[in-house]
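ARCHIVE CARD
CATEGORY: sequence design from structure
SOURCE FIELD: tokenized fold
FIELD CONTENT:
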């Protein structure tokens, strides 16, 4: 079990955002630095297509070089939304497994250590059958990528429809079932957790929710955090991201999270809507909002 909230350590949280790869993978890194990011998340292919153009050695080299030049750390990849590791359809399940293997190989080529993936939806099958399919999929994926460093991160979900992973217990069951648990990690999304029914708005709620997570999954399994406010209310099971402090969560859950020393070394990524507000980029605004919530030492929240 993790201890209660402690005063923060001396280093600030690593904050960043998901960035477009339009024009080249290195462009995402450049965009991240321009917005004031410490870290960056990206797709390594079109997220709504199965097929992917091969990554050339030149493209991979440009990306890796730009990370160093622009001082951007902890690159993170997000897998295609088409992947459904829980699918009861054998053809779609195998296609999803094959696609995830490709996602990990592409990440490896770019020196990206983790690929975030949604567990998927059980559709007509039961949740138990869907979870068994996820475990079977992860076992095959890990077996086929055993010679590379990149590993998958299961992301918690809002629970729309038959999507699995909205309850921490489901994520825990998936991780407990795989043959190589050290080759699978977790990515937590704040909007998804809230929409799934986990309150985060007060110190007591924050502590209770994370104690539940630690008891079931384990905070030590988290490798990345998605920072998103929610357009919809607590327990809505609807996944709609909003700008930080402007949705149903409000600013307080993010203040509590950013100042909780248990999460200080975990890179955090915005997945908030793109665009501008009053002539300023939303990523810049959201990052400034987050950094404004940091406590410069002092007592725990």
């Amino acid at each position: 079990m993790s201890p209660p909230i402690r005063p923060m350590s001396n280093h600030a949280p690593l904050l960043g955002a998901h960035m477009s790869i339009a024009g080249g993978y290195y462009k995402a890194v450049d965009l991240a630095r321009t917005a004031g990011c410490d870290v960056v998340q990206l797709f390594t292919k079109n997220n709504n297509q199965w097929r992917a153009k091969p990554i050339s050695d030149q493209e991979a080299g440009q990306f890796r070089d730009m990370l160093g030049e622009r001082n951007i750390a902890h690159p993170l990849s997000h897998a295609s939304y088409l992947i459904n590791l829980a699918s009861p359809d054998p053809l779609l399940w195998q296609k999803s497994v094959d696609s995830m293997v490709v996602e990990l190989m592409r990440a490896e080529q770019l020196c990206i250590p983790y690929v975030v993936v949604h567990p998927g939806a059980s559709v007509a099958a039961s949740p138990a059958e869907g979870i068994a399919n996820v475990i079977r999929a992860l076992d095959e994926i890990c077996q086929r990528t055993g010679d590379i460093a990149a590993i998958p991160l299961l992301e918690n979900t809002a629970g729309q429809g038959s999507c699995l992973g909205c309850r921490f217990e489901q994520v825990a069951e998936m991780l407990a079932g795989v043959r190589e648990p050290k080759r699978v990690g977790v990515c937590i999304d704040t909007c998804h957790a809230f929409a799934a029914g986990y309150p985060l708005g007060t110190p007591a709620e924050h502590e209770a929710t994370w104690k539940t997570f630690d008891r079931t999954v384990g905070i030590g399994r988290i490798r990345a955090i998605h920072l998103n406010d929610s357009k919809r209310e607590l327990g809505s099971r609807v996944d709609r991201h909003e700008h930080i402090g402007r949705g149903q969560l409000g600013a307080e859950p993010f203040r509590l999270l950013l100042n909780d020393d248990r999460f200080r070394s975990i890179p955090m990524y915005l997945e908030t809507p793109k665009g501008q507000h009053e002539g300023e980029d939303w990523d810049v605004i959201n990052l400034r909002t987050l950094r404004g919530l940091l406590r410069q030492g002092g007592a725990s929240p």
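CARD ANNOTATION: The two ends are 19 Å apart (CA to CA). The first strand starts at residue 15 and ends at 18.
SHELF: design records, drawer C
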